[in-house]
Amino acid sequence: MNRRSYRLEEIAHLVKGECFGEKDFQVFNLASLEQAQNQHICFVNGDKYLSQAEASQAGAYIVTAALKQQLSSKNNFIVVDNPYLAFATLTHIFEKKITQRGISSTAKIHPSAIIADDAYIGHYVVIGENCVVGSNTIIQAHAFIDDQVEIGKDCFIDAHVTITGAAKLKDRIRIHANTAIGAEGFGFAPYQGKWHRIAQLGSVQIGNDVRVGSNCSIDRGALDDTILEDGVIIDNLVQIAHNVQIGQHTAIAANTAIAGSVRIGKNCIIGGGSAVAGHLNIADNVTLTGMSMVTKSISEAGTFSSGIGLFENSHWKRTVVRLRQLADVPLTQITKRLDHMQAQLESLESTLKLRK
Amino acid sequence: MNRRSYRLEEIAHLVKGECFGEKDFQVFNLASLEQAQNQHICFVNGDKYLSQAEASQAGAYIVTAALKQQLSSKNNFIVVDNPYLAFATLTHIFEKKITQRGISSTAKIHPSAIIADDAYIGHYVVIGENCVVGSNTIIQAHAFIDDQVEIGKDCFIDAHVTITGAAKLKDRIRIHANTAIGAEGFGFAPYQGKWHRIAQLGSVQIGNDVRVGSNCSIDRGALDDTILEDGVIIDNLVQIAHNVQIGQHTAIAANTAIAGSVRIGKNCIIGGGSAVAGHLNIADNVTLTGMSMVTKSISEAGTFSSGIGLFENSHWKRTVVRLRQLADVPLTQITKRLDHMQAQLESLESTLKLRK
Amino acid sequence: MNRRSYRLEEIAHLVKGECFGEKDFQVFNLASLEQAQNQHICFVNGDKYLSQAEASQAGAYIVTAALKQQLSSKNNFIVVDNPYLAFATLTHIFEKKITQRGISSTAKIHPSAIIADDAYIGHYVVIGENCVVGSNTIIQAHAFIDDQVEIGKDCFIDAHVTITGAAKLKDRIRIHANTAIGAEGFGFAPYQGKWHRIAQLGSVQIGNDVRVGSNCSIDRGALDDTILEDGVIIDNLVQIAHNVQIGQHTAIAANTAIAGSVRIGKNCIIGGGSAVAGHLNIADNVTLTGMSMVTKSISEAGTFSSGIGLFENSHWKRTVVRLRQLADVPLTQITKRLDHMQAQLESLESTLKLRK
C-alpha cells in the first residue's frame, strides 16, 4: 500500500479543526471504532457512539467539543463542528489513487478522438469516433466509449462501463463498474399484436459531480435527452429509463426503477427498491422511503411511503386474508353506524327509565 | 452526424401517408414537439398534445385527418391513421446505423467458428469454439460469445454482453449492453446445512425479434432450456431464471424478477419491479401492474395487481399500525353484526311504541 | 459436445446408490422426465412426479426404494435415499468443463502478480499489481482483476466480472458474468445541500464455496470490510452494500437489495425482490418470503413476510381505496363497541320482557 502517514496536527489542519494532545502523533489510517488500532484515527458520530469510543483502541478521535469532554480517558483529539464531514474529507487523503497517466498500449482509440495528455486510458479500452476525454480523467480497463461520447475532466469511469448513444458527461463524474449509459430506451409501438421498435434518437446528458453506481442502466432518450443534473448521486442496480430528468443533488438508492419521461426535482431522496411509473413529475425536496411505488405525480415537498415493513409470517398470512375481504367492508360507515346505534340505544334506555 | 435529410413527400411515402403543404420541404430529423426546430418533423399523438403542437416550432407534423383540421396555423402535414406507428417507422431512417462490416483486427475468433462475411465483429470481441454468427449481425466491442453459441442474422449484440451456456439466438435479436445470457441458473440442493451446487446442463433459446435490455440476467436451464419465444421484449435489469419459458410478444418492464421454471403466456405485459415465484404458470394476455408479486398461477387473461401506490408518510404510518391490527378484526362479521343489532334495535323501538 | 457416456452401475457407484436392471445400460446424459429419451437418466423427486415418470421415455430413473415400487413398468433404477442430491452430484459428471489451462496470449498480467501454473486466464483478462490467482482457478475472457485482489484455488470467475477494492476471495468461489465486486460503496456526507463523497477504504472478503450470480454489485466497505462468509449463495442482480456481513450458508434470491452495514446471520433464506434497510441485524435461521421489506432488526429465527400476493385489478383498486381509509378506522375498538352495544341491547330486551 502506498499510503503515507500524517501528523495529527496536519490532519487537524486539513479538516479545519483544533488539535488536542500529541501534535506529532503519527496517523497511518482511518478506521472504525471497533477495529481501530493505536496508529489509527476514528470519528465519533454523536453521543450514541460514546461507549464504543471508550472501548476503542484508536490513537486519536475526531469529535465535537461536547463529545471531547465526555471522553476523558482519551488523549488525542481533533475537534470540529461536524465529525462526519471531517471524516468524509479525510477519506480522500487515505484513498489509494490511480496515479498512472497516458494511454495503455492495448487501448483502441479512434484517430478522431481527442484524449487529454494527462488522462489515463486502461488496457483494452475502446474509444470511438469523435470522442473527447478531458484532463485527469481515468478510464479503467475494458470500458467502451462509443462514437460521439464526450467525457469532461477529473472523471472516473470504471471497468466494463459502456457509454454509448453519444452521451455527454461533464466534469468530476464517477461511473462505477459494469454500468451501461446511453443504451437504447425501451420504446415500442404496439400494432397488430406485435411490438414495433422505436429507434432511440436522443442522448444522455450528465452534469458535474454526478455519481452512478455499478450495474446501472441509464438509457438514451427517444427524441430528447435523458438528463442527470449536477450533483445527482445514484446507487447500484438502478434503472433510469429514456427521457427521465433528475434535478440537482437528488439521491437514488439501490434497485430503484424510474420509468420513461419521469421528471424528478432537486434534492430528492429516493429509498431503495422504489419504482416510479412513467410520465410523472416529482417536486423538489421529496423523500420516498424504501420500496415506495409512485403512480401519481407529487406536486409538493414531503415524505411519502408505500412499502410495508415485515410481519411474522403467520400474522402476515392472516392479515392478507383480511386484506382480501377489505374491499367489501364499508369502513367509513362502520363508525357512523356504531355512533348512530349508540344514540338509538341511549334514547331507548332513557325512554325506558322515564317510564319506570 | 451522418444523417441526411428527406423531402416531406419522401417521408409520406415511407409511412404510407398523405402529404399536405410543401412537398419539397426538407426534413433533417424527428423531434419532440417541445424541442423541435423548423427543419424537424413531429408527431401528434392525440388531442391532448394539440396545444403543445400549436406552440411547436416544428416545420412539419404527422397527424390523423382529424388532428390536421384542428391545427389550422400549421402548413406541412403527413396524414396517417396511426401517427405513433408512423413515428416508430421513421425513427429507423434517422437512426445512425453501424455500417462497418468485417472482423476487427483485435477480435479473437476460434478457428472453428463460422462468421458471416457481412457481419461486424468489434474490437476485443471473443468468439469460442463452434460458434455461428449470421449475416448482417453486429457484435460490439468486448462481447464474449462462448463455445457453441449460435447467433442468427440481423442481430445486434452490444458491448460487454456475455453469451454462454451454448445459447441459440435466432434472427433480428437485440441484446443491450452488459447483459448476461446463459449464465448458470441458481440451483442448489440443500443437504446437511450446506448448499450443493447443481451444475446447469440446459441452455437458452431466444426466438426471432426478441429484445433484451441492458444489465439483464437470463440463466441457462438446469436440464431443459430457458426459452424466450418470438417477439418477446424485455427492459433493463430483468432477471429470467433457469427453465423459464416466455410466450410470444410478451413485454417485461425493468427490474422484474421471474423465478425458476415459470411459464408465461403470449401477449402478456408485466409491469416494472414485479416478481413471479417459481414453478407458476401465467396464462396468455395477462397484464400485471407495477410491483406486482405473483405467488399463484394465473389461469385466465386479465389485469392483476398488488403494488400499493404512495401515501403521505404520516398517513402511511397510521395505516401500517392498522394493518398490524387487521388480522384480529373479524371484518366479514362486522357488517352482519351491525345489521343484526340494527334489526334488534328497530324491533325494540317498535315494541316500545306499541306499548305507549 | 465432449461428454462421454456412463454405465448405469458406474452412476450408481458415483451416487452411492443401488443399481437395479441392466447394469451395463449406457447413460449419455441427465434429462427432465418430460424431455428424456431412451439414453437418458432422470430423477423422480417425490410422489407428485410419479405420473410424469410413468409417461417418460427415459431409460433409467433415480428413485427412493418406495418410489421404485410404484414404477412397475420401468426396468432400470438407481435407488438412493435422496434422489435430488444424487441428481445434484450427477450434474457434475455431465457438465462440460473448461479444460484449458495457462495464460492466454492476450491477457495483461502485471509482473508482480502471482498466477498458479494450472490456472486458466482467458483472452483479454487484465490482472493488476500484487494480485494472486490460485491453483485450478478459471478466469474467463475480459475479467478485470484490479490491484491487490487475491483469488484462491478452484474458483470460477466468468466473463466481464470486475473485482476491485483489493478484495480477497478464498477457495471454490464462483462469480458469474458481469458482476462487480469491490466497487465503491454509496457513502456521502450531506453538507450545505450537496453530497460529499466518502472515499471507501475498506475491502471485500469472500469465504470458501461462495457463489455470486450475474450482474450483482458487492461494494467494498467504508472502513471495515464487506464480508460474505463460507457457503453463502447469491442469485442474480443482487445488491450488497458496503460493510454488510452475511453469515455462513445464507441464500439470497434475485433482485434483492441489502443496504449498508446490515448483518445477516447463518442459514438464512431471503426471498427474491426483498430489501433490507441499513444498519439492521438479522438473526440466524431467518427466512424472508418474496418481496419482503425489513425495517427493524430481527432477533429470533422464524419466517417473516410483507409482500402481498396478486389481486384481480378491480378488486385491488377497491382494496386500496379501503386502505386509504383504514388509518382513521379505530379497528381495535369496533369489536369492543359491538360487544358492549350487544350487551346493552340484551339488557334492554330483558328489561322489556320483565315488564310485559
Automatic annotation (TrEMBL), chains A, B, C:
<dbReference type="InterPro" id="IPR056729">
    <property type="entry name" value="GMPPB_C"/>
</dbReference>
<dbReference type="Pfam" id="PF04613">
    <property type="entry name" value="LpxD"/>
</dbReference>
<keyword id="KW-0443">Lipid metabolism</keyword>
<keyword id="KW-0677">Repeat</keyword>
<feature type="domain" description="Mannose-1-phosphate guanyltransferase C-terminal">
    <location>
        <begin position="107"/>
        <end position="183"/>
    </location>
</feature>
<dbReference type="GO" id="GO:0103118">
    <property type="term" value="F:UDP-3-O-[(3R)-3-hydroxyacyl]-glucosamine N-acyltransferase activity"/>
</dbReference>
<comment type="pathway">
    <text>Bacterial outer membrane biogenesis; LPS lipid A biosynthesis.</text>
</comment>
<keyword id="KW-0441">Lipid A biosynthesis</keyword>
<feature type="domain" description="UDP-3-O-[3-hydroxymyristoyl] glucosamine N-acyltransferase non-repeat region">
    <location>
        <begin position="24"/>
        <end position="92"/>
    </location>
</feature>
<keyword id="KW-0012">Acyltransferase</keyword>
<comment type="function">
    <text>Catalyzes the N-acylation of UDP-3-O-acylglucosamine using 3-hydroxyacyl-ACP as the acyl donor. Is involved in the biosynthesis of lipid A, a phosphorylated glycolipid that anchors the lipopolysaccharide to the outer membrane of the cell.</text>
</comment>
<dbReference type="Pfam" id="PF00132">
    <property type="entry name" value="Hexapep"/>
</dbReference>
<feature type="active site" description="Proton acceptor">
    <location>
        <position position="242"/>
    </location>
</feature>
<protein>
    <recommendedName>
        <fullName>UDP-3-O-acylglucosamine N-acyltransferase</fullName>
        <ecNumber>2.3.1.191</ecNumber>
    </recommendedName>
</protein>
<keyword id="KW-0808">Transferase</keyword>
<dbReference type="InterPro" id="IPR011004">
    <property type="entry name" value="Trimer_LpxA-like_sf"/>
</dbReference>
<dbReference type="Pfam" id="PF25087">
    <property type="entry name" value="GMPPB_C"/>
</dbReference>
<dbReference type="InterPro" id="IPR007691">
    <property type="entry name" value="LpxD"/>
</dbReference>
<comment type="similarity">
    <text>Belongs to the transferase hexapeptide repeat family. LpxD subfamily.</text>
</comment>
<dbReference type="InterPro" id="IPR018357">
    <property type="entry name" value="Hexapep_transf_CS"/>
</dbReference>
<comment type="subunit">
    <text>Homotrimer.</text>
</comment>
<keyword id="KW-0444">Lipid biosynthesis</keyword>
<dbReference type="InterPro" id="IPR001451">
    <property type="entry name" value="Hexapep"/>
</dbReference>
<dbReference type="InterPro" id="IPR020573">
    <property type="entry name" value="UDP_GlcNAc_AcTrfase_non-rep"/>
</dbReference>
